[in-house]
Ubiquinone/menaquinone biosynthesis methyltransferase (Phaeobacter italicus), 266 residues
Amino acid sequence: MSDPFQNVDAAGEEFIAAFADSMDARQSDPQMESIVATYLSKLRFAEGSVTVEVGAGAGAVTRRIAAHAEPERVMAFEPSSGFVKVARDRAKQYANITFEVADGTALPLDDNSVCNLILHTVLTHVVDPAPLLKEARRVLKADGNLVVCDADFSKASLSNSPNDPLNACARAFVDEFVTDPHIVAKMRSLMIAADFEVTEFDVQSRTIADNDQMLPWVEETAKRMFDRGEIGQELFSGLVAEYKRRAIAGTLYGYQVFATAIAKPA
Ligand SMILES: C[S@@+](CC[C@H](N)C(=O)[O-])C[C@H]1O[C@@H](n2cnc3c(N)ncnc32)[C@H](O)[C@@H]1O
C-alpha cells in the first residue's frame, strides 16, 4: 500500500483527524520543540520578511514558526484541503499566518520573494523531492535560507530484544506510512543538485520512553494487519496492550532520528 501522506485527502477524514492530532502531539514533545527552536534560532526574520512552510499539514510546526517570527508573515502551503481546514481552525489566534492549498512543486509565489522556506517532515513522503527543491530555489531570495528537517525512518525502532513484536509494527509503519525511509542520507546531495549550498547539517536522536507518541505506529499497523486477516483480534489488542504496559512499566524504548539541513542558494 502506498504512503497515505502522498495524497492525504484520498486517505479520508478519519486519517486527517487522527494524524492532525498525532502531529500536534509529536511537535509538543520537548525533543521536537528543541529541534524546531534550534533551526528557527538560526534564521533571520527581518521586518517585512516572508517565511514559507511547504507541506504544513495541520499546522503544528507553522504555529511555532509564526510565534517565533511574529509580527512578520508566515505563509503555509499544503496540498490537502482537509489538513488546511484543520490548520486554519487551530491557528486562529495567529494574525501573521495564512494557509493555502498548494503543492510544493507549484507555489503561488513570485521568483526571489521568500526569505526562509521550511520543509518539515515532507520529503520523506514524496516520490521525487527534486521538483520541490527546484521550486524552493525559484522562490527564495538570493540571501534566503532553506531548512529541510526530516526523520531518518531507516533507523526508527521499537525494539527491546531480537525479533521484538512491537518492532515488527514499527517496521510495518515505515513500510506503509513512509515513501523514502532513507531520505536523510540523500538530503545534502539533493539540495546541492538543486543549486543550494548546504551550510549546516545536524542529526538529533529522539527517545519515546513513557508516552503515547509511537502508539499510532502500533495501533495503525496492527489494525491494518487485523483488517487484512493476517492477525486476530487477540493479537491486535495484545500488541496495543504491550505498548501501554511498557510505557507504565518504564521499559518502553522507541527510537527515532531527525536531521536538519540548512542551505542558501548557491
Ligand atoms: C508528516 S506530514 C508533516 C506536516 C507538517 N510539516 C508537520 O510536521 O506537522 C507530511 C505533509 O507533507 C505533505 N505533502 C505530501 N506531498 C507534498 C507535496 N508534493 N507538496 C507539498 N506537501 C506535500 C502532506 O500532505 C503532509 O501534510
